[in-house]
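Troubleshooting: if your tokenizer reports a length mismatch, compare against these two reference records.
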Amino acid sequence: MLIVIVAAVLLVVSLIRRVYFQSQLEQKAKYNFSPVLGGMILLGFLTPLMREFGRSLIFLMTMSALVILTFIAGRNGLTERGVLLPKLLTKILDFQNIIKVNLKPLDINQQSDVVVATFVEKKTKRQYALVFEMSLNELMSFLKSKLPSEAQIET
């Protein structure tokens, strides 16, 4: 039961952080469906536990927080502090921890500009990609104002 309580606390804290950081988004990325898929798979594995813990208020709160977090985790973008990443447990990649950004404009149709931005983390070299519906110049000027001077922006 202790693991359920710890999971409930983590998910509720992550949910509160996610809602707060989503309210701080300055540039919104397109909705990302990967957290929804990951959350649904996790919920599928947790469903058999309903028989044992189904009457527990903490377990129901954990499942509810997971369902809500699964759907709102797809909204990401750029905040004042950094990049809100598409993860179930809310994570902000601080602009100071970004070493490189690759911007690739996509020509999907003539009516809207779409840019794929790949952010490379300084310590782990891990890459995070977000898709923005804005012009390349707008996104580049926003990033230049936020990123440290040693960060590279490639197109």
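Reference record two:
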Amino acid sequence: MSTNKARLHPKKLISCLGIVATSLGVMIPNAAYTQTTSTPVIRILRVTVAGGTTFKLQENWFRQSTEITDNNKKCGVRTGDKFFVATINDNRNNNAEYREGNRVERLRDYYTVTFDRPLPCNRTNQTWYIFKNHVQQLQAVPIR
């Protein structure tokens, strides 16, 4: 068999290979599954304000910590403390506000959070409110 007369047509070859590869990608959509799976993100809140801050329960989110007399409804934390967050809502679109005299508190200035572990005051399974300017939100991705 003589191969000297055989000619490759690069444009046709590339086009055909492209069509075959595309059709395989459509027929086998999970071909790249291991490369595209979402990695869980670990969320952490770190207290950044000097002097610490206070997590508050829902009925007290708008109160100053000194106004909350029931210690079961607040949890004081120190500067530099870090907490693993289970859920967090930034309340960005929430227009709820509380007015008292000249003071106005807006819910969108607070994070609503639940935690993976109990807070230092041993409160579990509760939703807490924290002033956004007192904490920094961090994220980490676990290494496998």
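Descriptive notes for reference record two:
- The CA atoms of residues 104 and 120 lie 29 Å apart.
- The helical segments are 10-27, 33-36.
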